[in-house]
Design goal:
Keywords: Oxidoreductase. This protein has about 250 residues and is α/β, with parallel strands linked by helices. Helix content is about 45%, strand content about 15%. It has a seven-stranded parallel sheet with strand order 3-2-1-4-5-6-7, sandwiched between helices.
C-alpha cells in the first residue's frame, strides 16, 4: 500500500527551496491534501490556488509552541515532513557562535521535536503514518564551515533514532534523511557540487515507499557515508581539513 497516494501530509518550511518541491511532488504522487506550513503562509497563496484545493497554506513557525499547537488541530495528517531549517555559515570559535548555535538548535532540533510531539497522536489515530526528518550528511560528520549547524543536525539524527524506537509501537515509520549539498538558496554559499531538489525529493519518497528508514539521496551523501562506515576517523579528519570557515 502506498504511504503517499490518497494520504494527507504536512510539510514544514514549505514556502521555498526543498520544502516547496516536497509539496509539488506530493501532489504529483497523488496525496489527497497537503498542509503547506510556513511562517508567512501568504507566500504560498499561488501554489494553493493552483492546486484545486489540495494545498492548504497554514501559519507555522516551528519555534513557536502556540503555532505548533494550532497546526496540530489538523488531525487528519498521516505523513509529517519536518523540513524547516536554518543554517549559519561559520565555525565554533567566533563571537556569534553561541547565538547562532542556539538559533539553529531551536529551529532544527527543538522545532522538529515540537512538531513531532504534537502530531504523534494524530499519526497514531490515523493508522501510524510516517515522519520524515530532514537531517544532513552533516548530521554524521562535522563540517567546520557549518560547525554549529552540523551540531544541530547531529541532534536531529539522535532525535530520529529515538522517535523511531518510541513510536514503533504505534506503527509510525520514522525516516531520517541525510543529503549532501542541495541546490537551494540555503546552500548558495557552499562551493560544492549540488544536487537538484527534485531529484533529492524523489529519492526520499521512493525510499519511503520501499520502507527504508535511512536515506542518502544524492551522490555526495552516498560517497561520504560509505567513507564514514569504512574509515570514520580518517573521513572526519579529511572533512575537517577540507571544509574550513573563511
Amino acid at each position: 500500500m502506498s504511504k503517499i497516494e490518497g494520504k494527507t501530509a504536512l510539510v514544514t518550511g514549505a514556502n521555498r527551496g526543498i520544502g516547496k518541491v516536497f509539496v509539488k511532488e506530493l501532489l504529483d504522487r497523488g496525496v489527497a491534501k497537503v498542509y503547506a506550513a510556513a511562517r508567512k503562509p501568504e507566500s504560498l497563496e499561488d501554489l494553493a490556488a493552483e492546486s484545486g484545493g489540495r494545498v492548504v497554506a497554514i501559519k507555522l513557525d516551528v519555534t513557536s509552541a502556540e503555532d505548533v499547537a494550532a497546526a496540530a488541530a489538523h488531525t487528519d495528517v498521516s505523513l509529517l515532513i519536518n523540513n524547516a531549517g536554518t543554517a549559519a555559515f561559520s565555525g565554533f570559535v567566533n563571537a556569534d557562535a553561541i547565538a547562532q548555535g542556539r538559533s539553529e538548535m531551536d529551529t532544527n532540533y527543538f522545532g522538529t521535536l515540537r512538531v513531532s510531539q504534537a502530531f504523534a497522536p494524530a499519526l497514531k489515530a490515523n493508522g501510524g503514518g510516517a515522519i520524515i526528518n530532514l537531517g544532513s550528511i552533516a548530521s554524521l560528520v562535522n563540517f567546520p564551515v557549518l560547525g554549529t549547524y552540523s551540531a544541530s543536525k547531529a541532534a536531529v539524527h539522535s532525535l530520529t533514532q529515538g522517535l523511531r524506537a518510541e513510536l514503533a509501537g504505534q506503527g509510525t515509520t520514522v525516516v531520517g534523511v541525510y543529503p549532501g549539498p542541495v541546490d537551494t538558496d540555503m546552500a548558495e554559499k557552499l562551493d560544492a557540487d549540488k544536487t537538484a531538489p527534485l531529484e533529492v525529493v524523489r529519492q526520499i519518497f521512493d525510499a519511503l515507499e520501499k520502507g527504508e528508514e535511512s536515506v542518502f539521496p544524492d551522490p555526495t551523501s552516498v560517497q561520504l557515508y560509505g567513507q564514514l562506515v569504512a574509515e570514520p576517523d580518517a573521513t572526519a579528519k579529511f572533512v575537517g581539513a577540507s571544509y574550513l570557515p573563511a
